[in-house]
Design goal:
- Keywords: Cell membrane, Glycoprotein, GPI-anchor, Lipoprotein, Membrane, Signal.
- This is Variant surface glycoprotein 2096.
- VSG forms a coat on the surface of the parasite. The trypanosome evades the immune response of the host by expressing a series of antigenically distinct VSGs from an estimated 1000 VSG genes.
- It holds the Pfam family VSG_B.
- Helix content is 49%, strand content 7%.
- The chain is mainly alpha-helical.
- It folds into two domains: 170 residues, no CATH class; 104 residues, no CATH class.
- Strand 6 and strand 7 form a beta hairpin.
- It is rod-shaped.
- The two termini are 13 Å apart.
């Protein structure tokens, strides 16, 4: 049924759908690209993100190319973490300085294939540490720690050269002697030009952006759930229909008895028919109006009607006979009654019946 509760629920549902569509437009389902996972693999293995010994994206052709290239030369230093590890651990004693004992293979950076082989052997000797979820702050802390350590100038000979693996040297002479890697530093800004380090910083930024994306989506989801809950509550209220209304005050006005009753009284031509609020006047000038309205009786009846509610409606008809029972009155059984009261009672009965039927079905 078209109840007020139903109309209200429809308005709330339409408003909810509009807001949900608005929230849907703000929802970002696309993860941040490139992902932190991809960037970390690029930091470890080079731009392709996969370890390779054939295309010189992970390892260089020699220590000279990978660990200490001439300015403006080949890809060289910092091309990948996987390449820098053999640079630092290169030696003639099977990387005892890094692994603590021989790794069972040559540790001279003489080709990309050999570098890959003993990188994989060397990694197995590295201790593993359990850690929780990788965070942007943890990555940036590691980057800062590396930057502070690698820029420490040990001796005057090293001067402004950024060399990891040896101190007091102006150059990194690789080739089986002392393992090292020489990084390039921008003259103006002092920034280290290390590709894998840049990838780590990008990975930290990607994690931060992805976290913000997920947090915003979570907030949108919470708002959507709250809107849906409100809409469902409105729908449930609508199923129950409108709440019962308070009984309205009677709107029937006090009858305009003066003119109506005067005309009615004049119709009575005998004393026995001339009853209140009429009064019989034997000496009336107009013989057709010997029965006329008594103002005193009218005033008393109106005062009584105002204090007795619906009873006043009955009184205006109660004194009438069957033939005179009209003009707002209706003959019922053996007495004349106010027709408006009968209609109201019938209407109330029909409303109760309809409500009861609604509860059943």
């Amino acid at each position: 049924p078209a109840t007020h509760a139903r109309k209200t629920a429809m308005l709330e549902l339409n408003a909810t759908l509009y807001k949900l569509d608005e929230l849907k437009g703000q929802y970002n389902a696309q993860p941040v690209q490139p992902s932190a996972h991809d960037l970390l693999n690029q930091a470890l293995y080079g731009n392709n993100g996969e370890i390779s010994a054939t295309d010189e994206t992970t390892f260089g052709a020699s220590a000279t190319d990978a660990c200490n290239p001439a300015a403006g030369g080949k890809k060289g230093r910092g091309m990948s973490l996987a390449s820098d590890l053999p640079c630092v651990c290169e030696s003639t004693d099977q990387a005892l300085g890094c692994a603590g004992k021989g790794i069972g293979t040559a540790t001279v950076y003489s080709s990309a294939v050999l570098a890959k082989t003993w990188y994989e052997a060397l990694v197995k000797k590295c201790p593993t540490v359990k850690h929780g979820k990788l965070t942007a702050s943890a990555i940036l802390a590691a980057v800062a720690s590396f930057g502070a350590a690698v820029k420490t100038q040990g001796k005057a000979t090293q001067a402004e050269n950024i060399i990891l693996g040896i101190n007091n040297a102006a150059d990194c002479n690789s080739g089986g002697a002392d393992g090292c890697v020489k990084y390039k530093q921008e003259a103006d800004s002092g920034k280290l030009d290390i590709p894998w380090l840049d990838k780590l910083i990008e990975a930290a930024d990607s994690i931060s952006k992805e976290n913000r994306r997920r947090q915003k989506n979570q907030q949108l989801l919470k708002r959507a759930i709250a809107l849906a809950d409100t809409a469902i509550l409105s729908y449930v209220r609508a199923l129950g229909g409108d709440p019962p209304q308070k009984q309205l005050a009677a709107t029937t006005q006090v009858p305009q008895a003066a003119k109506h009753s005067e005309e009615t009284c004049n119709k009575h031509q005998s004393r026995d028919k001339c009853t209140e609020p009429c009064k019989w006047k034997e000496d009336a000038a107009d013989k057709d109006k010997k029965c006329s309205l008594d103002p005193k009786n009218v005033a008393e009846q109106q005062a009584t009607q105002e204090g007795t509610g619906e009873a006043k409606k009955e009184e205006k008809c109660a004194w009438k006979g069957e033939k005179e029972c009209k003009d707002g009155c209706k003959w019922e059984g053996t007495e004349c009654k106010d027709s408006s009261i009968l209609v109201n009672k019938q209407f109330s009965l029909s409303m109760v019946s309809a409500a009861f039927a609604a509860l059943l079905f």
